[in-house]
Design brief:
Length: 454
């Protein structure tokens, strides 16, 4: 029996999917059959749940989602059959959907057989009275049809005008709502994440311009201009929503939990000293960074010496290379002569289903190079980390892509999710048309590499 799933709440409320024979998946990933909003339905995992044929009906199972699947208010732990009218919620406080069976309609029985009516008797030459008898109804019928057509046209024009006004009002309200939220997000940053703060202000300016243009188009009644502006408004809204997601991270908590585990790396290639970032993954001073940091971009260089400096410290320690990955841009370093334990990062988020496009992230590191020890510029100086913000733009082919705000990240910098867990290790990036994209090794590959080493 076919069925229908209707989203009742959330950003995709009203969206429907007909269930007809095969398993369907629901989530935020684009490859799901029913995709929920990847930027706003943040309680939903990438592949959250599946609805599948079960006996004569249907059943639902959770796909290991982070926030669970609720059936009629109760979280399911195993595949559960569905009944007509059941309510499904994708994550606590997530979108609510209604399940309905589509019952086949019984065919309409044919009516009793009636032979065709015999044609009326006609005379080859109709009388004048007979001609008058059909002329009048024809004229009246034509007038009625014309009046109906005029009324329908007027009703349609009125309906389209009203719909046009409703669309304009809805767009204005949406713009106002997002501008208010953007202002609150920008104020909350208090200048700490300057790059993101500037991006928010820039997007607000674009959206405010679109609002002014929309008001002008409304005054002139230019429906085509309103349609074009709708696209601009949607793009500006999407940019602001991404930036707000990043701005709403608890940067202070993330930084406090992980900053002291981040270290500046100095690599001396026969007098050429380059700097990068690493971070402690074990309390015995085992560190993780990029392979190209210690072997050069082509992987054929040998460092004369390595040194590291922990965040908030003046002390510089010698280090050595323990292992490098042949598959990913990763390397393990070790400091041998530190007495006691060192701070480590909070942990790793290696669950790919929790890494979604539009998710806010924080990057802690030492961007824009660093002091050259040979020149003595950094000797005795305290190593100060920089925290920048970003938004996940894609996860594909073993690479995590992040739209970054602020200064460029340093190779080897850890990228943290909202819970303060490492979700990737930055190894490169690009800037196109002023948009900065960072590339990182995802945490699942990082964890696999560390397990091989240890």
């Amino acid at each position: 029996m076919n069925a229908q799933l209707t989203i009742l709440t959330g950003s995709t409320a009203g969206k429907r999917l007909t269930l007809a024979g095969g398993e369907v998946t629901v989530g935020r990933n684009p490859d799901t059959h029913l995709q929920l909003d990847p930027l706003q339905d943040l309680r939903v995992s990438g592949r959250h749940a599946a609805i599948f044929p079960h006996g004569e009906g249907w059943a639902i199972r959770d796909l290991g989602s982070r926030n669970g699947t609720l059936l009629n208010g109760r979280r399911i732990a195993a595949p559960s059959p569905l009944k007509d009218g059941d309510r499904i919620q994708f994550g606590e406080d997530g979108p609510l959907a209604e399940f309905r069976l589509i019952r086949p309609q019984a065919p309409t029985p044919p009516g009793p057989f009636s032979p065709p009516a015999a044609p009326p008797h006609t005379h080859p030459v109709a009388s004048r009275r007979e001609r008058r008898s059909w002329v009048l109804p024809t004229v009246v019928g034509g007038l009625v049809v014309a009046l109906l057509a005029t009324g329908i046209f007027a009703l349609r024009a009125w309906s389209e005008g009203r719909r046009y006004q409703e669309q304009v009002v809805a767009m204005q309200e949406r713009i106002d709502s997002i501008l208010d939220a953007a202002a609150a997000s920008a104020d909350a940053l208090r200048g700490r994440i300057q790059g993101l703060h500037d991006a928010l202000l820039d997007s607000r300016e674009h959206l405010e311009k679109a609002r002014r243009d929309l008001q002008a188009a409304q005054a002139s009644g230019d429906a085509a201009e309103v349609a074009a502006l709708r696209v601009q408004v949607q793009e500006a809204q999407a940019a602001l929503l991404r930036q707000q997601l990043a701005a709403n991270l608890d940067f202070e908590t993330i930084e406090a939990a992980n900053r002291r585990a981040v270290v500046k790396v100095y690599v001396d290639f026969d007098g050429e000293v380059v700097t990068a970032t690493a971070f402690a993954v074990r309390d015995d001073a085992t560190l993780l960074t990029n392979r190209h940091v210690v072997l050069g971009p082509s992987g054929d260089r040998t460092p004369r010496r390595l040194a590291v400096q922990f965040a908030d410290s003046r002390q510089v320690w010698p280090a050595r290379v323990v292992a490098t990955s042949g598959a990913d841009d990763l390397a393990v370093l070790k400091v041998d002569n530190i007495v006691g334990l060192v701070p480590t990062v909070l942990g790793f988020n290696s669950r790919l289903d929790t890494i979604q496009a539009g998710q806010g992230v924080a990057v802690i590191g030492f961007p824009l190079g660093g002091a050259d020890l040979e020149a003595g510029e950094g000797a005795g100086a305290v190593a100060r980390t920089t925290i920048t913000a970003g938004v996940v733009s894609a996860l594909r082919e073993g690479i995590l892509e992040v739209a970054g705000y602020g200064v460029e990240g340093s190779s080897g910098s850890p990228i943290f999710d909202g819970d303060g867990k490492v979700m990737g290790v930055l190894f490169g990036g690009r800037i196109v048309d002023g948009e900065r994209t960072l590339f990182a090794v995802p945490a699942d590959l990082v964890v696999a590499f560390l397990q091989q080493v240890f």
